[in-house]
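Progress against Task 2.4 (sequence-to-structure conversion) is shown through the following example record, which the project officer requested during the mid-term review.
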Amino acid sequence: MPESSSHRLSSYLSRYIMQHKDDYYELLIDVTKNENWEPWILYMLEAVRETSLWTLAKINAIRNLVDMTVAQVKGELPKIYSRELVDEIFMQPYCRIENLVQAGVAKHSCHTRTPCGPRSPVPWSTLTCI
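Structure tokens generated for the chain above:
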């Protein structure tokens, strides 16, 4: 069953609502008892505004971390750098070799007696970035 838009909105705003829950319940009761909608609507608009600003700050922080990681990998490991590698690390922070191979960022280049396969314990030294 698809999630309703009101459920997605309340999930998105839950951080703000939890931080201001006394106001939330007070205003909700006022709407129920007195049909006093304006303060409730203003409260919800402030929740959207503050949550949007918080989300934008998170997005900017992540973008800055990506840029810093790109610069560090380029500077310290230029032979294996690719933007796709950095993107994969940010999409899946706990990343196994097989995740990189499946993402098309790297391939196995076995020069050992260890069998190469998805479940075999392949050392990082046998990984070639594409």
